[in-house]
Structure formats: structure tokens, C-alpha cells
């Protein structure tokens, strides 16, 4: 009977701990890596939002799952956090020192928003959001070679999504306000990633997401710069807003060839780009391309 219960528990689990430990590149301590199990109906892909975020439907067996939360790792010793692939990348001694010295700062900052996060058990949506915030602060300590700005853009956008999900579970904890804050950060970092492209070589990042199911590449970055400006940009200075929206419209039209033949860019990104272009045109009172 015990074996049967143990087997059922394993089948119903969302994640498992890898046999191979990960070595933190900052403090050199080893820790266990949690990996999400795949298959058996754990992930039921739903709609794709205009923010290129893949929704997942509730599974009768597993309930709601959040695959995104397993995409980053955190060292429980020094609270350095990266995308898993970056744990194997070379980090300069200067950046290592800076990241290590700010361990307490990261801990205090994250506890202000996620005071009960836990790194010693299977992660929840709450823990996963806290881990992304730790990653956002870790990449803030890194130099151009790590392409930190675009990674912070992706992380900020994912944090906005995760906090929006948290707000659905506990609407009285202001996670809707926190989500809006991360949308504003995402807007800033996406636009900065384009500005610093030459220094950081942002367009060479292997996977630009922004979600984990598909890589929309640099075209996706340009699209998100415009979309986030349209949805979350400042509205106090109307002339500045119209100027930025018009610049976004021009950039999207140039990238996606709107108004011309767009057969070489099929799929949902082109459809969303067309919709955004139309919305931007209405706002800036200019329907001509």
C-alpha cells in the first residue's frame, strides 16, 4: 500500500529534484535544481495574449500550473539568481564580487514584496515570483557581456504576468499594483535594450522569449517596445506620448513590412503587430503608412 501511495504521489507531482547539483558561480556552493515534469497532461496550452504570453488551462489532475516559475534558479546561500543556462556562463570577477556583496540587499528588497518566500521546498507561484525578482536584481549587477538589459526586460515582463496571476489568488495583497510596476519596468528595459544594442549586442541573445514556449526573437522585442508603450506608457505629457507612439508605429511598420507583402513573417506575431499598428494609427490620427 505504501508503495502504491508513493507511486501516485510521484505521478501527480509537478516537479522533481535533479540528481546533478548546480554550483553557484558566485559563492561556489552546490545546491539542488528543481525541474518541472513534462507530459501526462500537466501543461494544457491555451491562448496567446497580445503580450506574447502563453496561458495554460487548468488541468483536472494537476490544477493550474505555471511553467515559467521553473525557468530561473536561485542559490539559497547567496541569493544569486539567473536563468539556468547562465549558471554555466563565465562571470567576471568584478561582477562576482558585486553580486556577492549585494546578497543582503537582494534579500531585504525581495522580502518587502514576498516576505514568506521559501527556497527549500517545491516552489509555488509565490516563490517563483520572488525568484524572478532576485534574478532581476542579480542581472542589475552584471556588465554588457551578459546582455543584462534585455534579460531584465524579459524578467520584468514575466514578473508582471506572475504578479497578475498572484492577484487572482489573493486580491487583497496589492499584487495588481505590483504587476503594474513591473510592466513599467519592462517598458523601460525593453526600450533600453534597443538603445544599448550595439554595446550589449542585445539582438544576439539566443532566446528572447518573452515566454518559454516560443522564441519571437528581435522582431518580438521591437513589437513589445511598441505594445508596452501603447498599454503602459506615461500619459502625463500628451505630446511626448504621441511622439513615442508615432515612433513605435514607424518601427513596427519597418520591421514587419506592414502595408507591403508580409509573407515572410507569418504567424501570430504578425497578426498582433497588425492589430497594434492599427491601434497606434488611430491614436496618432495617421492611418497612412
Description:
With 289 residues, the protein is mainly alpha-helical. The protein has ten helices and eight strands. The strands form four sheets. It has a two-stranded antiparallel sheet. The chain has a two-stranded antiparallel ribbon with strand order 2-3. A hairpin with a 6-residue loop joins strand 2 (22-23) and strand 3.
Task: Provide keyphrases for this structure.
single chain; 289 residues; mainly alpha; two-stranded antiparallel ribbon; two-stranded antiparallel sheet; 10 helices; 50% helix
What string gives the helices and strands in order?
HEEEEEEEEHHHHHHHHH
Tally of separate helices: 10
Question: What's the N-to-C terminus distance?
Answer: 70 Å
Q: Pick out the low-confidence regions.
A: 4-9
The count of DSSP E runs of length 2 or more, i.e. the number of strands, is: 8
Provide the spatial order of strands within the biggest beta sheet.
1-4
Instruction: State which percent range the strand residues make up.
Output: 5-15%
Averaging pLDDT over every residue, what do you get? 90
As a percent range, the share of helical residues equals 40-55%
- The structural class is mainly alpha
- The shape is globular
Major β-sheet, in short?
2 strands, antiparallel
Task: Give the C-alpha Rg.
Answer: 20 Å
How is the quaternary structure best described?
Answer: single chain
